[in-house]
Amino acid sequence: MTAARDAEGQPTAPAPRLPAKLAAHPSVQAVLARRRAGAAVSPPAVIDAEWLRELCLAAGADDAAAVSLDHPDLAGEREHVESALPGTRTLIAMAIRMNRDNCRSPARSVANQEFHQSDEKANHAARGVTQALQDAGYRALNPSVGFPQEMDRFPGRIWVVAHKTVAVAAGLGVMGLHRNVIHPKFGSFVLLATVLVDAEVSAYGQQLDYNPCIDCKLCVAACPVGAIAKDGAFDALACTTHNYREFMSGFTDWAQTVADSEDAADYRSRVTDSESASMWQSLSSPPGYKSGYCLAVCPAGEDVLGPYLDDRKSFMDTVLRPLQDKQETLYVLPGSHAQEYARRRFPHKPVKEVTGGWQPPAKPSASTEPSASTDRETRTS
Length: 381
Hints:
By secondary structure, the chain is α/β, with parallel strands linked by helices. The protein contains 17 helices and ten strands.
């Protein structure tokens, strides 16, 4: 008996024996018929890099590059990637440009609309690439660009894949002082997306051999809560407490304020009308970022750098100063460096103490007298 062969003339494995009822199903018969006719051809084991790049650009990305899951900088991602899509071999990083002057606007509605529109475009592009890879015969998956994320894992890692880590490994940019990826051409004005696929690619991106950051320190000057230090230190808690005030952690703090208020008058003494309106808006539409100024003032990137080089004073007067001068409430943890910095550096901006939504230390039972060690742990946790 002659062995069955595929469309390229290679021997194929014998078809598994199916139960009679399953074998008689019309869908099963259609699949088997296509296989016998040679229509079901496996996709190439290695994806052509040029084809993949053109696919990403056609889907809406402004730049794209692939990186192997075996890249040493992705060792910390392997467990999470393989959990999301078992068999993943490659991660495809994509960059989507944002409109610079929208991001720079002191009007948060303008800047946040730009962030959210770009976020939607990035998700749409990643989904389109995933669908095209699926249609080509590969298994592929695109995690969310931002929220929604895996909140059931909180306070642990809630993101499926670290887009910034992947983008840097793929050569789309370098992490700046402000903890945003700086693209060599588009600068900080990009959002990132990642697609996981179960195949290798013929050529992978190469990491940049220089940092697009020009060390201007404008992100340090723009941050209203001092989260970015000149020496490279970064206070993630200060950044999260203020910038993400109307995301999950800030909502939790607001809900606790509602719960702790004795009545409507007490609530209004704790939360201003504008704060209530802003929280309502973030609950009824995508939540708003309170700052993002570090990204807004960054002049790095070949497409962005010109005006800064032409007239640095004018650049600071038109881009940096309006954000520094803006009247706005700054949210800080009590007794934090952010609180001291905000009051000293921006005395015209009201500073408000919040818990940040973080879980407070557990209160000891009224019927139990805590030991000295328990009391010490509670006060220092």
